[in-house]
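Design request, tokens follow.
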């Protein structure tokens, strides 16, 4: 992965999943001898007394305003004093953002004290801010709570899908801690022969080499009526393994230290990859390919794995410098 000195960037949120992502990002930065950038994006209304404010007449001249902003209620003030209230509100929000970043910095420093850390509190939609940050990152790391796909659509966890679809760098979605496994540890990569898959394979080989891990390359075939009977045959499995080996051959020569296991599975792609990666350090996939329709920005399998991967998921884009 040719990245120069571009930092590992992590989107920080105030949750256990967010702090887990910070720890994972610190480890990634240490492995690649890169700096770590902690970013928190806040989207706040320009006028805190906006749509939720209640204006009512009073016995005094002018109007009084009461602004309810999330869980903090601003006291009533004459209209002329509202600019002061806005400044106070903005200052309090900024202080909260900085406090969160300070907390994340402590987590990163405890995890990897040798990694240089910078922070940035940025105003704007989190999706837009993180897409912009991705243009300067070697890897973008996001936390994701273990929620149902529907529930996750209503939370900040949903940013993983639109950010991954547009990011020019690999995006790591940390859904849970790396499993405690026996030796040797394993990196899993989904292989389907697409252009995006080639870059994902390169990223997976490099990761396995850096971590002293084996590589489990998995090709999943969605079943059809004709395939179900034939797939179990020795010839059918051997043909699939040969094609898989051809995809991996050049990378095995580049990383001779990585022991490769080739696996072919017949089944639902999301479920099969999640099952095979249950004990893996991470699961690596391409941003497209492995199912979906022409024109989709994110493959359907990759989209599904954002919600169902058992541990860290790394999504590698078709473009960029990988390998």
């Amino acid at each position: 992965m040719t990245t120069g000195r571009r930092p590992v960037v992590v989107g920080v949120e105030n949750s256990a999943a967010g702090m887990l992502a910070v720890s994972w990002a610190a480890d990634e930065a240490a492995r690649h001898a890169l700096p770590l950038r902690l970013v928190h994006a806040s989207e706040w209304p320009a006028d805190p007394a906006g749509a939720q404010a209640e204006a009512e007449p009073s016995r005094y001249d002018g109007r009084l305003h009461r602004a309810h902003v999330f869980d903090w209620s601003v006291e009533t003030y004459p209209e002329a004093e509202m600019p002061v209230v806005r400044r106070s509100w903005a200052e309090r929000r900024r202080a909260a953002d900085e406090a969160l970043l300070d907390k994340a910095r402590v987590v990163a420093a405890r995890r990897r004290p040798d990694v240089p850390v910078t922070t940035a509190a940025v105003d704007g939609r989190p999706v837009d801010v993180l897409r912009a940050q991705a243009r300067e990152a070697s890897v973008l790391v996001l936390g994701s709570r273990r929620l149902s796909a529907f529930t996750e659509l209503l939370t900040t966890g949903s940013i993983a899908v639109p950010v991954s679809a547009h990011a020019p760098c690999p995006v790591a979605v940390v859904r849970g801690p790396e499993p405690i496994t026996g030796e040797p540890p394993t990196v899993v990569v989904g292989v389907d022969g697409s252009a995006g898959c080639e870059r994902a394979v390169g990223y997976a080989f490099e990761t396995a080499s850096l971590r002293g891990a084996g590589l489990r390359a998995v090709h999943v075939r969605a079943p059809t009526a004709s395939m179900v009977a034939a797939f179990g045959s020795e010839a059918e499995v051997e043909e699939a393994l040969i094609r898989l080996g051809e995809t991996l051959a050049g990378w095995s020569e580049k990383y001779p230290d990585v022991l490769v296991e080739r696996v072919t599975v017949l089944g639902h792609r999301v479920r099969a990859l999640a099952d095979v990666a249950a004990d893996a350090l991470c699961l690596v996939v391409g941003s497209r390919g492995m199912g979906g329709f022409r024109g989709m920005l994110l493959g359907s399998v990759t989209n599904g794995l954002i919600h169902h991967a058992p541990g860290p998921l790394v999504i590698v884009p078709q473009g960029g410098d990988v390998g």
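Comment from the thread starter after seeing the answer: thanks! The chain is about 40% helix and 20% strand.
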